[in-house]
């Protein structure tokens, strides 16, 4: 069967849950411990599509990243990105537009999926759907609320990206 390969990136502020989302999706587990190292990590996930395999090469900036320095190389060749904010941290929301701009500067047609993560933390939630819609404005009509902890909507996020990448 044919194999299609796509590079995708996780983008978003420090500590919003990028690494946890990848871990949940790729390894189907969640790790409470907070690992902070420097550099880039890549994982592969094979999706069975109708008549081919889609190999996602998922790039992650490890904690301590300086995106302003590493940005261009990190994004080069990416077909799409999941851009993540933390629903308990309003300061992570305006960064969505910044990362979208960075991705689009490297690849004009990159598929962007916007995510509000940590939806399981209902009591601490400080970002409403309305906030998100305002922040996204013209960037996107929709977003997904996920939890790397419970797994809620994690597969859906990556599948939406796959579907959008393989449209038409
Ligand atoms: P990154 O810097 O964006 O890669 O964020 P991490 O994946 O390292 O997560 C930062 C912290 O948030 C860690 O302590 C995670 O355990 C925690 N975390 C990540 N996602 C979730 C989630 O969906 N729910 C909860 N409750 N905690 C999360
Ligand atoms: Mg990380």
Structural write-up:
The protein has a single domain, classed as P-loop containing nucleotide triphosphate hydrolases (Rossmann fold). It has helices at residues 18-27, 67-75, 95-106, 129-136, 154-165; strands at residues 2-12, 40-48, 52-61, 78-86, 111-117, 144-145. Strands 2-3-1-4-5-6 form a six-stranded mixed β-sheet, sandwiched between helices. The two termini are 20 Å apart. It is 30% helix and 29% strand. Helix 3 (95-106) links the parallel strand 4 (78-86) and strand 5 (111-117). The longest helix is centred in the middle third of the chain and has 12 residues, at 95-106. The chain has five helices and six strands. With 168 residues, the protein is of the alpha/beta class. The radius of gyration is 15 Å and the shape is globular. Guanosine-5'-diphosphate (GDP) is lined by residues 12, 14-20, 32, 34, 63, 117-118, 120-121, 147-149.
Radius of gyration: 15 Å
User: Major sheet: size, sense and barrel closure?
Assistant: 6 strands, mixed
Q: What is the overall number of helices?
A: 5
The average pLDDT value, as a whole number, equals: 89
Q: Using the 3D structure, state the CATH architecture.
A: 3-Layer(aba) Sandwich
Low-confidence stretches: 34-38
Fraction of residues in helix: 25-40%
Bound molecules: guanosine-5'-diphosphate, magnesium ion
CATH homologous superfamily descriptor: P-loop containing nucleotide triphosphate hydrolases
Distance between the termini: 20 Å
What form results from the Cα inertia axes? globular
Beta-strand segment tally: 6
Structural class: alpha/beta
Order of helices and strands: EHEEHEHEHEH
CATH topology: Rossmann fold
Strand arrangement across the biggest beta sheet: 2-3-1-4-5-6
Domain module count: 1
CATH C-level category: Alpha Beta
Share of β-strand residues: 25-35%
